[in-house]
Write a structure and sequence with these properties.
Layout: H1 2-14, H2 17-20, H3 72-83, E1 85-86, E2 93-94, H4 100-107, H5 116-128, H6 139-151, H7 154-160, E3 173-175, E4 188-190, H8 191-207, E5 220-222, H9 227-237, H10 243-247, E6 256-259, H11 274-281, H12 284-292, E7 298-300, E8 307-310
Antiparallel strand pairs: 1-2, 3-4, 5-6, 6-8, 7-8
The protein binds zinc ion.
Zinc ion binds next to β6.
Length: 315
């Protein structure tokens, strides 16, 4: 029964792509955002510009990943990771490397796309789901994974039922400390979400202190945003792209946190341009979150490496 329910939900989600891909926000400079993605409000006022991250790091290769590009399937995965022409979130993209850490986590390895270990793990994942086990990453495999990831977001499940959660009462919100806000920004979130965030950052400091060589690591640059302020910003800035994006952002729940995971030179921490998202997806901060955030109840909208939602309370 549970399996059937999940399948039904998957079909439901597949039929509501607009709802199933909602995330948070795009920041300039940015090309036209994907039509299928919800946009809530303009980003926070630009804080003082900190030095950007350095150049993107080469792929992390763990022991057990095997040779790189040593067989045709690994070679093809390496090529499509950079070249696949597709629209996984309604906007044309080239390659799937931005999603590679998430995909690798899904199939249970920490290996780059062009490794033998990646292809082998992908074959096992495909077999376990009755899919052709060719070890090749492509659109159909990704969409199956994406459906699972989106199902794990309570906000998306709620939206898929045609509902938009009411914002929490004022007294359910707590203000983060200045050191928790990005560049001292004042942000508010539900108390439970902030508490979980604090447990998560404490664990990161203990388990992966190297992450914090970047002093902005995991700082919150946006959290609760009231529907009213989102609507005002939409009207003022004309940056709404449809009513839903302006009226039902996950940020209205007080459960969504936009976390600093790095940024490419010249871009803000929430710029959705592809080079920025690719850069962010390869940072140690994001990779740690992919591997660990679930322990603290946080799930990610994969199009936006910075957008995390706490699942400890209903939206
Ligand atoms: Zn967000």
């Amino acid at each position: 029964v549970k399996v059937k329910a999940r399948q039904s939900l998957r079909f439901l989600l597949a039929g509501t792509m607009v709802l199933a891909t909602v995330g948070c926000e795009t920041k300039k400079p940015s090309p036209k955002p994907p039509a299928s993605r919800e946009q809530a409000a303009p980003p926070p006022k630009a804080p003082p510009t900190p030095p950007p991250d350095g150049p993107a790091q080469p792929p992390v290769v763990s022991a057990g990943c095997g040779a790189l590009a040593a067989d045709p399937v690994s070679q093809e995965n390496g090529r499509t990771a950079d070249m696949l022409a597709w629209r996984p979130f309604g906007r044309a993209e080239s390659g799937w490397r931005t999603y590679a850490p998430r995909v690798a986590h899904e199939i249970g390895v920490d290996c780059p796309p062009e490794s033998a270990g990646f292809a082998e793990a992908l074959r096992a994942w495909q077999r376990s789901r009755g899919m052709p086990d060719d070890g090749r990453m492509g659109e159909s495999v990704f969409l199956a994974m994406k459906a699972r990831w989106q199902e794990n977001r309570p906000f998306v499940r709620t939206s898929a039922r045609g509902l938009c959660p009411a914002p929490p009462a004022d007294d359910a919100l707590e203000t983060a400390t200045p050191s928790e806000g990005y560049m001292g920004k004042v942000v508010q979130a539900r108390a439970g979400a902030l508490e979980a965030y604090r447990r998560m950052t404490a664990a990161a400091r203990e388990e992966a202190p190297e992450i914090f060589s970047d002093p902005n690591a995991l700082a919150i640059f946006s959290a609760f945003r009231s529907p009213e302020s989102d609507a005002q910003r939409c009207a003022r800035d004309g940056n709404c792209d449809g009513v839903r994006r302006a009226t039902c952002s996950p940020h209205r729940t007080g459960l969504a946190l936009d976390l600093y995971v790095g940024r490419a030179p010249g871009f803000g921490p929430d710029s959705s341009v592809d080079p920025n998202r690719l850069h962010q997806s390869q940072t140690p901060i994001y990779r740690w979150l992919v591997a660990n955030a679930e322990r603290f109840g946080f799930v990610n909208y994969p199009f936006e490496p910075w957008h995390w939602e706490w699942t400890g309370e209903a939206p």
